[in-house]
Design a protein that fits this description.
By secondary structure, this protein is α/β, with parallel strands linked by helices. 42% of the residues lie in helices and 14% in strands. The chain has helices at 13-16, 18-28, 47-61, 75-88, 97-113, 156-166, 206-215, 237-248, 268-279, 295-304, 319-326, 339-342, 355-367, 369-386, 389-402, and strands spanning 35-40, 65-70, 120-124, 142-146, 171-174, 186-189, 224-228, 254-259, 285-289, 307-310, 331-334, 350-352, 410-411. α7 crosses α10 (295-304).
């Protein structure tokens, strides 16, 4: 099953140039007649699903027989995988033997449900990881595991449990150099991407932005500071509220925290409730749980913002940073995970390490609009060169071609 996609490959040419488009088409010729399957844990919510929804139609357009499968998961399974997710990010979690059995049993269920006999099987994140046990049915196939999270300091018990499955893959793909583990296998560095032609990132008329803010009941009487992310402990919405209140002591502004639900994230409502408690009905703090397919709303919020924040405690990559930079918005973000690849401190945004640091940086940008504008313009060009969907597709096709070759870690990104 795939989602509709309005843009064709040639529509990206004015943004990235004709040579990049031709390179992509040449690579695609190696896969004519080959079958590729992408597997992840949810079709709606989060960066992985969003990337796949944009990537799969372009692969189809280029003549690659690609399909997108989503595993099934029970509530207990998603509670376990959320704990695994947090633990792999280095958060303290209580992990029990029963959790491993829940994980394995759901994996066996999905293995019975899915037919993975394609030439290339591309598995995203830990939830579907154990499907690799079935690769013996097609020993000539290429299996690639894509890790979208920060595993630089993983919980040793969870990582030790997952590692034998990871080693069955032909290659593992990570978003940043710090995430790569010492494994006897091919490991590849590929940054995620945004689609500049999607509803979330395309240009919007000012009237559309005004209408969205009116509908969401967000006044434009003062500068808006926005964080767009899941309501997740690791995104630190409570810390954003605390930083905003420090800024507001000297600069009038509004705060918007906007997120959406995801079927594989059972903590969102709990974190949203805590954020509401911390906000205490403050009229200048707007908490939005947006429904699925709210891309225009997110686009408008980011474009209307004076500053966009991403104050994560841990982060796989944080594509909301590239989204904001593509709109030439100044960004204040934590120096964690893949964020420093997107934000070069003092050039394409400001990196911070604490609530106090975030407040200082936000205040600095609100008080220095010309400096903020320059950071945003630099950020847009940085994203154009490094974090657009077409570059991402090129890297994946090269990885599929090379996955069976013996090699150490290779770099397919040009933004180090």
């Amino acid at each position: 099953m795939t989602q509709s996609h309005g843009a064709t490959l040639t529509e990206y040419e004015p943004i990235i140039g004709s040579s990049a488009i031709e390179e992509l088409r040449q690579l695609a010729r190696y896969f004519r007649g080959k079958r590729v399957v992408m597997v992840n844990s949810t079709r709606v919510g989060g960066g992985v699903a969003e990337i796949l929804s944009r990537m799969v139609p372009i692969l189809l357009e280029m003549g690659i027989r690609v399909r997108w499968e989503v595993i099934e998961g029970s509530d207990p399974f998603y509670k376990v995988t959320k704990k695994f997710h947090n633990a792999l990010h280095g958060k303290q979690e209580s992990i029990t033997p029963d959790m491993f059995e829940v994980f394995l049993e759901q994996g066996r269920h999905n293995a019975r449900k899915l037919t993975l006999d394609d030439d290339v099987v591309f598995i995203h994140d830990p939830q579907p990881l154990t499907l690799v046990d079935g690769r013996a049915r097609r020993p000539d196939a290429t299996w690639v595991w894509r890790c979208h999270i920060d595993v630089s300091r993983p919980h040793p018990g969870v990582w030790g449990f997952l590692q034998p499955y990871i080693l069955q893959y032909d290659a593992a793909v990570y978003s940043a150099p710090a995430f790569v583990q010492r494994l006897a296998m091919r490991q590849v560095l590929i940054a995620p991407s945004i689609d500049p032609l999607s509803d979330k990132n395309r240009e919007l008329e000012p009237s559309v932005i005004d209408e969205v803010l009116r509908r969401l009941e967000i006044p434009r009487d003062r500068p808006i500071v926005t964080q767009v992310s899941r309501f997740d402990y690791l995104k630190d919405p409570l810390g954003v509220i605390d930083a905003f209140r420090r800024v507001r002591r000297s600069v009038k502004c509004r705060l918007v925290l906007a997120g959406g639900p995801a079927t594989d994230d059972p903590e969102a409502e709990e974190v949203l409730a805590l954020a509401r408690e911390r906000a205490k009905d403050d009229p200048e703090i707007h908490l939005l749980m947006l429904p699925p397919q709210s891309d225009i709303e997110i686009n408008a919020l980011q474009r209307a913002s004076a500053v966009v924040v991403q104050k994560s405690l841990r982060e796989g990559f944080g594509l909301t940073v590239s989204e904001a930079l593509w709109k030439a918005r100044p960004v204040v973000a934590s120096a964690v995970g893949g964020i420093p690849l997107q934000v070069k401190h003092g050039y394409s945004g400001l990196l911070v390490h604490s609530i106090e640091g975030a407040a200082y940086a936000i205040r600095q940008l609100l008080n220095s609009p010309e400096y903020a504008k320059r950071l945003g313009e630099n950020g847009r060009e940085h994203v154009r060169q490094n974090f657009l969907l077409t570059r991402h597709l090129t890297d994946y096709l090269v990885t599929f071609l090379c996955a069976r070759q013996r090699s150490d870690t290779i770099h397919l990104d040009n933004h180090q």
